[in-house]
Amino acid sequence: MDPLPPDAIQRVLFLSPSVHVYAIPPLTSTKGYLAASWTSPSVHQFPPCRLRIVETAIPTTKPSSSSTNNPPTPFSTTTTQTLTTTLLLEDPTTGALFAACPYTSPASVSATLDSTRFFALRVVGEGGRRAVLGVGFEERAEAFDFGVVLQEVRKVLGMDGVVGGAEKGRRKAAGKENVGMQGEGEGARRDWSLKEGESIRVDVGGRGIGRERREGEGQGAGWIAPPSAGVGEGGGGEGGVGFLLPPPPSAKEVREERRRDAQEGGFDDGEFGEFQ
């Protein structure tokens, strides 16, 4: 790695004392990497390494636009920082660098399709030589923390702009499709809600069940006229509303009525119970 300027500031974002490192074979399809093929005997495995994610901030001083032709002064310059993030695989004992993975795009680190503990790193060696190494964590929680740190790095470096926009577009299209399907389903349903001025009438005898309007209001959409088979005085004709049937007598009233009929007919059961 190139030497850093003296005013550079480095910050360790993630540290794993030991991870497994694999010399993984090249991809055979565009789907992604499979960690199951890394543990086969034909795949070479390197000694465990220490993994660090290091953020480097390098201050840079630039003259302001109004003082381009004037000699620089402390008040005529602006200071900015250049942020870079690098994944370092190091010897856990000596700290010697084994491989470095500059995190310049989300494709620099790829998660495997069949496991959440394994990742593929695109490392860069001396002379610009590139290779892909597999990294495996022992604990699933540690791999989760690794992914969360990389997600925060993408936000800081502005890498989520394109990916986030595409994902937002897919979600927006899916949302429109769901809204359209919901609208079609609602259009096919009938509206059974009560309209303004309507009430529900339910007869115990099973007649006259339906909706009726309040007196003095015209017919509205969705009004259902009750049947005209009401029994009683003033029974309505076709389209009219008849009087409701009286409720059925109770058992006590039936017994009293039978007792009165028996007494009027000259039969008095007396203490022998109800006349049958």
Characterization of this structure:
This protein has three helices and nine strands. The protein is α+β, with helices and mostly antiparallel strands and 276 residues long. The longest helix is centred in the middle third of the chain and has 28 residues. It is elongated. About 10% of the residues have low confidence.
Descriptors:
276 residues, alpha+beta, seven-stranded antiparallel β-sheet, two-stranded antiparallel ribbon, elongated
Give me the side-by-side strand order of the main sheet: 4-3-2-1-7-6-5
Biggest sheet descriptor: 7 strands, antiparallel
- Mean pLDDT across the residues is 75
Helix content: 10-25%
Spans with pLDDT under 50 lasting ≥5 residues?
162-170, 218-222, 229-241
Rg, Cα atoms, Å = 43 Å
SSE pattern: EEEEEEEHHEEH
The span between the termini is: 113 Å
Q: Give a count of the beta strands, DSSP E runs of length 2 or more.
A: 9
Please state the overall shape, judged from the principal axes of the Cα atoms: elongated
DSSP summary: helix tally: 3
% residues in beta strands: 25-35%
- The secondary-structure class comes to alpha+beta
Could you provide a short overview of the structure?
The protein has helices spanning 140-157, 160-187, 251-264; strands at residues 9-23, 44-63, 77-90, 97-102, 109-111, 118-124, 130-136, 198-201, 210-213.
